[in-house]
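hiii so my PI (J.) wants the whole complex modelled not just the main chain, which honestly fair. so below is everything: two entries, each one labled with what it is. i double checked the lines twice but i was tired so who knows lol
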Amino acid sequence: MRSRFQQGLDVLKERLLEMGGMAEAAIELASECYRKRDGQLAQQVFEREKMINDSERHIDELAVDLLAMQQPMATDLRFVLAVLKINSDLERVGDLGVNIAQRSLDLIQEPEVDVPVDIARMTTAVSTMVRRALESFLSGNADVAHAVLQMDSIVDRMKDEAFVNLVTKMKDNSENVRPYLDVLLITRYLERIADHATNIAEDVIFWVSGADVRHNAMRLSEEFDPDAPRSR
Amino acid sequence: MRSRFQQGLDVLKERLLEMGGMAEAAIELASECYRKRDGQLAQQVFEREKMINDSERHIDELAVDLLAMQQPMATDLRFVLAVLKINSDLERVGDLGVNIAQRSLDLIQEPEVDVPVDIARMTTAVSTMVRRALESFLSGNADVAHAVLQMDSIVDRMKDEAFVNLVTKMKDNSENVRPYLDVLLITRYLERIADHATNIAEDVIFWVSGADVRHNAMRLSEEFDPDAPRSR
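here's the output for the full assembly
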């Protein structure tokens, strides 16, 4: 039989995955709001974000209670701390969904322009990153988490390409600066969601292997060795 | 005599304040880089960010070690968890300093334009928020933390005003879309630093009072009472 503490960990994991589902839904709805120019969908994103915020508070409390309840083993401790960080990342994903929906509402007020950016493709890439990051968390699979890190540079490139193309459009169609600017901001929000997926993947790797992959760090044991080789 | 655990908490606090100082320095240097159009200063921001990243890893490890070492009392537990969150916020402030420096480097390549935004004033407001947030952490003073929350809406307003003024400039001077866009992005980065200062202030309030002020939540005791009145 699993201990009360272990059961608590199970509940924590379950709640976090539910929250992940809500965050994914917020991205999808926001993207659909943009694509269909449908303001009703923005409202749904705003409601989803409130649910995500409630969920964040609830998960934080569960985690703190678990830590206070008894002294977890090293791996469990890292797991709970990873949950706290992932929780905070997912909450920001919800906020960014709201930002995308707000820009989409702004776009609905503006004349429809020819957009030189494949927002749908970028959204798919970003959603996939979030889903994979959560899968890696569910399975404790560091390989999946590493694959998420790889995808981040693809999204970064999409964002940079979008920037160049949108600046050109703005120069050539100065009457439509505002809608192009909205689209540009949407690409930045998507890229920030990708960053949060990256953070989640890094936290999974930290939890699973005890290694810190942030900032391309080597394993912690090497951190304070000035002669140790560093990647990049 | 203070216990080994208490001494650990002291060291943790000290390290976090040092990191806060580095983050503040990164904002100031980035802002100076923008103002003086001096690319050398951008390099200093990049170096500072590397130090901040190292510091983040170090503080995370100290905090995890403390939690693993012994079972902290409820207040100490909340303190260590607050440190972990603040640590992550300060690291992001360093990243945003880099973003500002990068946009400033881009601006140096472009013709100098008449900027309809008081970046210096906005930077001062944002730096003050970060400093006050850290002061509230140092003193455990929730009143100072609440004052930081008030300031956030001022910075938000500055950002919104900047958006409107910059869109107008872009429409009227389409040949200078790019520098205006750089300035617009800088105002977004500054606003995000203000958001991180707000997060820090919220974490201090959480640590000091055990109350969760995120998302304008009521005290936790009321969280699960559906009939309890909610602010906003």
